[in-house]
Amino acid sequence: MTLALSKKEIMNEARSAMTINVGKAGVNDNVIEEIKRQLKANQIVKLRFARSVAKDKDDLISNIVENTKSQLIDVRGHVAVIYKKKS
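^ that's the sequence the OP posted. Answer follows.
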């Protein structure tokens, strides 16, 4: 998958992107569907992970990226930015 925008452009747009909080319940089908809706509407979504799930963050991000067919752009602290080009 190639990026339509450069990483720098995506990160600039991510400043105002929709943020989805991932809490202690983790990632379920409803969270995946909401992320898919936001990606379809905005292409870029920020995922903020609660401290209680931070140790599992890498597995959760992999699960989200795989299920939404998106691309991980950046991870900083407890926040990940994912991108999916509009088709």
